[in-house]
Amino acid sequence: MSDAYRWGFTPTPPPVALGPRPELPGPAREQGPAGAAARPLSRLVARASAIVFVLVLVAAGLAARALRERASTAVEAALGARPTIERAAGAVIAAQSMRPAPAADPIPVKHAGYEPISGGVLIAPESFAPRGSDYDLVIHFHGDVAIVRESVERARVGAALAVINVGTSSLPYQERFTESASYERLLAEIGRAVAARGLPQPRLRRVALSAWSGGYGAIAAILANHQGDQHLDALLVADGIHSGWVDSGGHKSLNPHIMAPFYEAARAAAAGQILFSLTFSEIEPQGYAGTAEVAADLLASVGATPAARPLLEAPAEVDLEAARHAVPSERRQKLEPLSDSRVGLLHVRGFRGNTKEHHIAHLTQMAATILADLSEHWGSNRTP
Fold this sequence. Notes:
Elements lengths: L2 H6 L23 H49 L1 H17 L16 E3 L2 E4 L10 E8 L3 H11 L4 E5 L5 H7 L5 H15 L6 E10 L3 H9 L7 E7 L6 E4 L2 E4 L1 H15 L4 E6 L10 H11 L19 H6 L10 E7 L2 E6 L4 H9 L5 H9 L6
Parallel strand pairs: 3-4, 3-5, 5-6, 6-9, 9-11
Antiparallel strand pairs: 1-2, 2-4, 7-8, 10-11
Helix pairs in contact: 5-7
């Protein structure tokens, strides 16, 4: 409390009412004419002193009143400004509450090695650095484990990785996940493996299903049975969706039993509900549709066509140490762009080449194509 506020509200005593000055007892007063002459002068001096005293008290009262009025005005001004002050204080508090909380430190999961799961392994790549119990997951079907792991690392996806290998064609993958709840059992097993890597009470957030070549059979079965829909956020297929033909009234078309779940996924991706990224080559298999025909059919299902663009840039070649050991240098092929089409989150890219080595390049270059799309979709900090 300020002095002005305190003193301005201190009560001032009322002026004192003065009466006749009493005569005090003392030695014998002067008598006679001299004393009589002195008495009027004394009375005059006394009256003058009383008047001066009264004037001093009045002046003091007026000064105190002015001080009270100034203090009252200051207090009223302060009280009138209180809402503004409170609003300013509220704004400061709100601004402080909007500041992002400091990010938690990454949980020290175990990156070296792997955890065994049914049909494959669970890996915690170096880029997998969760700051809480929630985690993202990539499940890749079919392909060299070291190549897939290094590709996920290079793309900086930031997810746990499961690699499943159960055969060399699409049929074993399809049969494995046709059984009801088979996919859910795999997710539960992966959850336990993630916990074994050091993530406490893991909670699955987003899943990307990935495949190369015949691994697409697993994705087809999972989609057909509508398993794990609550977590599924991306589909990635590298030169892998094939289909048989059916003859309906003299018109040859792709087998709807195989293609139906992929048509549904393409429409969802075109509407921005899920990422669907796939690549195709110019390989023409005997007796069934190749990946180029399937890609064209998927685009047609959403009202688009493969877009051939002049001077398409080839994706930056990814040099993987694992690929150097798996594919001899004289047999390695680069991806040469043929077409690139986007409809919403549906991304279809075609590359030239019709040899086995061209087909393998779709696996070894995943980090520059379908995994790069996933990294962008999930917002990871990807390094070239």
